[in-house]
Amino acid sequence: MKAWTPRTWTGLAAISGLLAVGFGAFAAHGVTEPKPVEWLKTGSQYQMFHALAVIGAAALHRLGVKGMGLTAGLFLAGTLIFTGTLYAMALGAPRILGAVTPIGGVLLMAGWALLAWRGFSWKDQA
Fold first, then answer.
1. Which tens digit of pLDDT belongs to each residue from 45-88?
2. How many angstroms separate the CA atoms of 59 and 67, rounded?
3. Cys-Cys crosslink for 93: which of 19, 55, 64, 88, Cβ 3.0 to 4.6 Å?
């Protein structure tokens, strides 16, 4: 069995979306300190956008667009690092963890750059 099937991509994207909603709700109803609320809101917004982006990249991968498996992987890894560090700090982890957050942001940007590159180099089937 191949590990990265449409089922895997969809399941991981759905879990990511679920977590985004949960952390967004926690920001709205479970936290009162401004900085943790900001981290949770930012993390949940980025996580939701990228959960949807994973589904889109996986769909393009299924259509045979090269590089979309890597794109989806970059989105997932970037989300894990970027939002994970924000959530951890909001829940009390040391703020020094924020030094790792930009690594996740770079991975997210790399995913978008790869998507753009592949999009512009896609040969139309006419």
1. 999 999 999 999 999 988 888 899 999 999 999 999 999 999 99
2. 12
3. 88
pTM, two decimals, is: 0.93
Rounded to 5°, angle at Cα 63 from 18 and 48: 20
Domain boundaries, the chain: 6-119
Residue pair 106/81 in contact (Cβ under 8 Å)? The answer is: no
Alpha-carbon dihedral sign for residues 55, 57, 58, 60:
positive
Residue type, 50: H
- Position 14, amino acid: A
Helix, strand or coil for residue 118? Answer: helix
Phi, psi of 16 (to 5 degrees): -65, -45
